[in-house]
Amino acid sequence: MQYLRNVNFTHHIKDRQFMQYLRNVNFTHHIKDRQFMFDDNYEVLARYTVYDWKRTPENTVKIEIIGEYDKSAQDGNYLRMNNSAILWDGGTSKKVPTSVCSLPCKPGTRKLHDTKQPICCFDCVPCSSNTISTNEDQSECDKCAEGYYSNDENTECLLKEMDVLDWSDPGAIGFLVWSGVGCILTFITIAIFYVKRESEIVKSSSRDLSMILHVGIVFGFLSPILFIMSPTDTLCQLRISISSVLDCLLLSVFLIKIYMVIKIFNRGKKGKTMTNLKIRLKRYRLLIVSMITGFQILIVVLAFFASPVKVVKDVTSSTKTTIVQCDTTLITFMWNDLFNLILIVVCFVFAFRARKMPHNYHEARFISVVMTFWIIIFLVSITTHLFTVGKLQPIIAIMFILILYTLILMMMFLPKCYLLIVAQSRQNSEPSPPKTVAVKGGHRNFATSSETLSRESGVQDCNSSHNDFSTHL
Hints:
Number of strands: 16
Helix content: 40-55%
Strand order of the largest sheet: 3-4-5
Strand content: 5-15%
Shape: rod-shaped
Number of helices: 13
């Protein structure tokens, strides 16, 4: 105020002069010990007292000072509060209430605003499948990349497992054991045939054709390995190509065998000479097998260009797995297996025609059984393959392959191995008498035709004690 005392009020005081003096006003309140002054904006520094209105049990209001705000505080602590003296919830609780409409949304959820409420009010909803949120109060969830899925909390994207037949899968282990046992049994039959190679049964089995059958069966038991590996474009093509060629190889052998039986039997029945026929059959049977198999290989090569097999990955059908499989269509099967189907039907027709031959022609009956099961397996396997996905496809394919080759091994070689090991001595000590059959004009002895089949085409005439096992090409 001393500045105002020095002013000569007899003269006119200008506004600027007065403001300059007013700005320099500075004094301390003698009671509350507060400094009074103006700031640069000519405003008095704010001072507030904070009161708490408390309701008493007598239903009256008690006003109590719980703090103050002083902008002029020298230490910069402008707000001083006595929090322990504050009562909330109608004066009954010291817990500070939440001053927001909605709590923050946790990771794994997103905010969903209600247009009828203020913007600070929202609901927290879980993220949808394959979407996540990693931060609080996210308005949108982030979609997982292709090949990933969200965990149960929708806070992390995890890599999808491949739905393929793995080496550690129990089914794959079982198939490998089955395949190994089949290979061992096949090698045992090869060893038996080699040791007994000078016996009439082995000679009558057309040793070259039997060896082709053995080799084909061994590769057939090994082919499931292609279906257990993780599929690739090359592996998918090899699966159907190798299976198709192996089937054709065995079918061509069966076709030659059953044709030889029927041809020699009919010529012997009519009393015709078989010298030229024996020479032709022995000379051309391997050539015919090679030509039929070579034709199938040509078809497989054409199928590779016309309808190639590719790997497809399906990441949408399953939530936690990626389905990886070979895209084998009906057109692909028709390209690769139509010729085999024709061979199966032809073999079945020939074997069916030979079903009423004498007991020493049982191999024709065994071939007819094999062809019957082959047709069933062929049609069922294609149908199930087209309507299954994931690792169920190779499982079904392996199962049918092992069933088929096990059946061929048992039907074509088990009776012969029995004769070679168990019944060979009895067969040599008890020769069977010549068989006769009625034909037009009387009876004809079939010793010549049986001997021809035994030596050149593979039919062995055994005695009556084991007629059920005498087969044999």
